[in-house]
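Lab channel / #folding
Pinned by the channel admin:
"Please post every new chain as: sequence first, then the structure tokens as a reply. Keep commentary short and put observations after the output so the thread stays searchable."

First post following the new format, from NK:
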Amino acid sequence: MHDGTPVGRYDQHVFIAVFDAETGERIEDATAEAGVAPLGLARVTRPLEPMVIAETITYGNFFPLRNDGVYEITVMVTRSDAARPTVIEFAYDHRTR
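Reply from TO:
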């Protein structure tokens, strides 16, 4: 998966499932990428690669989450028939203790 499990102690797997808002059907032909950043620091952006889980497609990749705290995560999903990506932003509170 994604060229193997990373050796980095702080790498975490970020993955998404994508559904059509109108029909509720899973979208399996999109391209996706995500950017992950601790608040106020530089963002790491990577493609979210398609993966098969339970005979369905999800998208994911590994990202470094080195410290406890809040991370900004931005996901961009583009369907083959779309002129521009759908962008979703949220905060993730990462606590290891």
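NK: The first strand starts at residue 11 and ends at 16.
TO: also worth noting, The domain at 11-94 is CATH 2.60.40.2480 (Immunoglobulin-like).
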